[in-house]
Q: What sequence folds into this?
């Protein structure tokens, strides 16, 4: 029982502690996950920034090299023509230009074409460089380039401005050259007799191959132009997809990844976005720092570095598994420690409680022993008092016997005097004899009363000292006890007595015990039912019902409280302990009625109304019952 009580207390506390530990570990796990995730993202961001920085630096360096080389070619051509004093478009002029272009094409592996274009957009001289092989394009194959953006946007005012066109694929005769040649053009204006545009095509395939090597196991590098088409992509099928398949909008980043495209358009430098389970870093890079006209719309590229979602997801899964494993281990370890601590605390508390209970039981047993001892002392005092009363009863019985003999002799003498006086009055009547006769009558009346009182005392004492069942009339026992309480009623004038008892209730039993029962009821009524100056009534009724005596004793006094009523017949139960009452009166009444007379008692009481005892006692007690 004690274990169940402690277990019922321990379980809620353990649940609260485990809930708190779980919440703490969840918060700590979430914090650890965010910490490592932020560190991973920061590391990825740093790696992507490094990749973007390297690729943008290489690209910018090449773009700057293109502008310098183009301007150098223009100056070299101008110087050579000026030194030879060649007229525009003479045969020697063309040879000089072709020779200069050929020598220039050999200086860089990036140069794929060198052209002289007339102001109207027609090619005049064109040199192709493929894998180190320099060839001049026949005049019949020269094309009109007036519709190309690099001719429309070429610088026309300042001759030292080099225009670098937007990035696209090399197109010949309206066909895309394969394999693809990502190309930019360096365009510079030529003035003088030989006016026009010097256009140098730079094949960036090797540059892109170099930039492609900047991708790592965690970071993929891509390049997107201002129109949203991939120039360089991890998936090669996406490169130049919008140009090759104009009807397939999925090949353009605008529709393929619209959220990323919005972020790219919103940035003007380095920007990062975490989307779709990966980190994206963008860097906007202008192809040409000086834009020739405001009509140019494709003069910039977006360098895009993104982490691999598969690798990042695997890393996230490993991180989550590690954190969950550590969290579960920590939860089990802490929960076990908390359980041990709580169990130890409750075990200590249980032992202390058991110790306190044992102490309380010992104190209770000690109090019971003290109470029992006190009751034994009270019982001893009661027995001593009973012994005294018994001795007093024996003395009263002897005194009544001694008094009864002389009082009987006096009565006989008075009877003789009365006979003599009656004779004298008959012979010679006189007032003196009449007065003497009246005096004798009064004396005889008082003497009769004295004899009755002595007989009553003698009967009471003899009944209480008798141990065997005997024949008696109930009204005699009741009247003898009432006679002894006449003086008490005189002192308690507010209390009246009503008796309804016939004279023919003959019983075989124990008149002494019956008188003790009535006496104890009177004592209780005077001690507890009525205050000293209270007013009330005591009603005693007796009747025969079949073979039983129905005897009731009722008072209109204070009544008995409900918490005491159920234990009024228990020994030593009393509300008058301060008045040295022992609480044995009603207990003895109960013992006499149930054990000695084989009857039973009913008691009813109401506080402020009164108390009523109803006794049912057999009219005839057998000798065997008395012996038991």
A:
């Amino acid at each position: 029982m004690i274990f169940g009580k402690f277990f019922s207390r321990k379980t809620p506390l353990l649940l609260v502690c485990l809930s708190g530990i779980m919440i703490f570990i969840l918060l700590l796990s979430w914090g650890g996950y965010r910490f490592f995730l932020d560190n991973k993202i920061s590391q990825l961001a740093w790696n992507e920034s490094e990749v973007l920085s390297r690729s943008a630096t290489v690209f910018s360096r090449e773009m700057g090299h293109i502008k310098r080389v183009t301007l150098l070619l223009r100056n070299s051509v101008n110087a050579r023509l000026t030194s030879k004093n060649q007229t525009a478009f003479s045969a020697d002029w063309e040879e000089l230009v072709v020779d200069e272009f050929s020598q220039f094409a050999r200086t860089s592996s990036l140069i794929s074409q060198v052209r002289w274009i007339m102001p109207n957009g027609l090619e005049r001289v064109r040199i192709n460089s493929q894998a180190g092989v320099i060839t001049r394009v026949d005049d019949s194959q020269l094309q009109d380039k007036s519709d190309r953006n690099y001719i429309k946007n070429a610088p026309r005012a300042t001759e030292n401005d080099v225009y670098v066109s937007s990035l696209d694929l090399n197109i010949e005769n309206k066909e895309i050259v394969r394999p693809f040649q990502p190309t930019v053009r360096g365009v510079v204006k030529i003035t003088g007799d030989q006016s026009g545009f010097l256009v140098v095509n730079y094949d960036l395939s090797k540059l892109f191959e170099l930039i492609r090597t900047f991708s790592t196991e965690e970071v993929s590098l891509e390049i997107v132009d201002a129109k949203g088409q991939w120039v360089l992509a991890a998936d090669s099928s996406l490169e130049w997809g919008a140009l090759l398949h104009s009807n397939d909008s999925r090949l353009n980043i605008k529709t393929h990844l619209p959220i990323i495209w919005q972020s790219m358009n919103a940035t003007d430098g380095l920007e990062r976005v975490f989307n779709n389970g990966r980190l994206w870093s963008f860097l906007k890079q202008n192809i040409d720092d000086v834009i020739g006209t405001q009509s140019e719309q494709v003069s910039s590229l977006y360098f895009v570095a993104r982490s691999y979602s598969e690798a990042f997801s695997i890393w996230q899964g490993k991180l989550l598994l590690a954190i969950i494993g550590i969290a579960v281990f920590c939860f089990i370890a802490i929960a076990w420690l908390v359980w041990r601590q709580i169990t130890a605390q409750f075990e200590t508390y249980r032992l202390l409680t058991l110790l306190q209970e044992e102490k309380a039981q010992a104190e209770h047993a000690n109090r019971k022993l003290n109470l029992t001892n006190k009751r034994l002392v009270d019982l001893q005092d009661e027995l001593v008092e009973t012994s005294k009363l018994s001795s007093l009863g024996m003395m009263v019985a002897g005194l009544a016997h001694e008094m009864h003999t002389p009082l009987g002799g006096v009565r006989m003498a008075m009877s003789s005097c009365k006979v003599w006086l009656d004779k004298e009055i008959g012979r010679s009547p006189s007032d003196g004899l009449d007065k003497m006769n009246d005096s004798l009558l009064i004396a005889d009346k008082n003497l009769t009363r004295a004899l009755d009182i002595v007989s009553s005392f003698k009967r009471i004492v003899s009944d209480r000292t008798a141990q065997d069942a005997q024949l008696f009339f109930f009204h005699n026992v009741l009247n003898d006890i009432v006679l002894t309480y006449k003086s008490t009623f005189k002192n308690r004038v507010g209390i009246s007595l009503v008796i309804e008892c016939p004279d023919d209730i003959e019983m075989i039993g124990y008149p002494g015990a019956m008188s003790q029962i009535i006496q104890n009821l009177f004592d209780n009524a005077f001690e507890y039912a009525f205050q000293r100056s209270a007013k009330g009534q005591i009603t005693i009724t007796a009747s025969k019902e079949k073979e039983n005596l129905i005897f009731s004793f009722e008072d209109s006094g204070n009544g008995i409280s409900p918490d005491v009523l159920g234990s009024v017949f228990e020994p030593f139960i009393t509300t008058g302990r301060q008045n040295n009452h022992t609480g044995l009166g009603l207990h003895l009444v109960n013992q006499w009625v149930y054990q000695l007379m084989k009857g039973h008692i009913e008691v009813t009481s109401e506080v402020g109304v009164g108390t009523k005892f109803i006794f049912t006692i057999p009219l005839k007690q057998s000798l065997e019952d008395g012996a038991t």
In short: Residues 273 and 620 are 114 Å apart (CA to CA). The first strand starts at residue 111 and ends at 117.
